[in-house]
Specification:
Helices cover 49% and strands 11% of the residues. The chain is of the alpha+beta class. The relative contact order is 0.18. Bound molecules: protoporphyrin IX containing FE. Protoporphyrin IX containing FE binds next to α11 and α16. The site of protoporphyrin IX containing FE has 22 residues, from α11 and α16.
Length: 430
Amino acid sequence: MAFTLGRNVLSVWGEESYRREIVSSPFFGVTSFTLNDPEAIRHVFVDNHEAYVRTSITRRMLKPMLGRGLFLAEGEDWRHQRRALAPAFTPRAMDPLRPLMTRIAQERLDQLARRTGRPIDLFEQTQRLTLEIAGRTMFSMEMTDRAERMRALVDGYAARVGPSVFDLVLPANMPNPTDLRRGMAANRFKAFIEEMIAERAAAGPAPDVARDLCDLLLAARDPRDGSPFDKEMLRDQVSTMILAGHETTAVALFWTLLLLSLSPGHQEEAAAEAVAWSGDDGTPLPAQLPVIHAVASEAMRLYPPAFLVTRVATKPDRIGAHAVSPGDMINVSPWLLHRQERLWADPHAFDPRRFMPGAPPIDRLVYLPFGIGPRICIGAHFATTELVLVLAEWLKRFRVERTDDRPVMPVGTVTLRPDHLARFRLHARM
Ligand code: HEM
């Protein structure tokens, strides 16, 4: 589309962004700061986080889909939502979802087993699997025919979401042609989510023990007055969790499998762990499957699905030697941060040993696949649980191999997607 800005954000960063602690550059009348310095990141995202909010571009791109949900909420409203939702995302709350995630992965991978030896589009498969898991852990509903519709609706929005020149040059309160296209695609998605929630409500009230994330969201209460989410808010929270959660996890799974296909030694080591594993005993997964956990963590270091986290300053501030004015933009790119030579040994190499038990501890401010500070990803436990369980089931069944040598390049849009439909072959292990 002619008015869409450069499609690959990664190509905007010159070599200095991989070396310098703070890079500042003019950006449409304000200054844009890219932070690669742990102390500067702590200042903006932890110590002084209240002075920084989501940018108007982020809001513009995501508001039609995410509405009043947690991702776009700010200030007091955000604080109350976050407190109401937090109990649904603790490691304990994931316990009842673990057998469900495993079962969905097993069913889906058993189907994929029919296609061993033939080329498959790996990204399409990881997207289908994570959407199926998102849908079923949310609604406990069979997604078989719905998953395809949901995938088309999410992809339809993704194709229209990217920032356009209109977004930058026209005032935020004036709807532009890109906003109209986003609005139409979002309305179709929201109607679909409302349909799912209504079907779910028709199936009867929630039992005492939560069956799924939807029950946990229904049980969430505003800490101020004990009230539940209203209908529209429930829809916005469900949409937020599906959108923030499924694509990021699909991308993480894709890059992990790609890296393993390029590194047969690591693939065999992870597969041996999966084959020897006697199944989830309910204890912490990184202890049950340390190699697979390390492989997924290292893949998210090299290919962080949320490759760019942005904020805008609401007050004058200082970041180190730099004066910040209201309206200035702050970027932290896990992609850049995770590849800094000052902070990582041999940063471009795939080396899961960095994350194995006994390795030197990794500073929380230099490894940020899930962000940092009070707005850190609420779904981080959900995502790591899903990644480790799915990878264990996957590697137990299949050896993953590329069908050609064409390099797969990352493209930074909203997440870090592969640049082309990369084909892989699965070989049965059992
Ligand atoms: C590998 C998978 C995932 C990655 C890499 C990821 C990454 C991130 C990052 C970097 C942020 C922080 C953004 C910021 O500070 O501006 C974030 C926020 C968020 N994520 Fe995730 N995420 C993943 C999975 C999930 C899942 C599974 C869910 C829900 C089920 C989820 C829901 C959210 C929400 C609601 C927020 C906003 C939190 C807030 O503003 O308080 N994410 N995610």
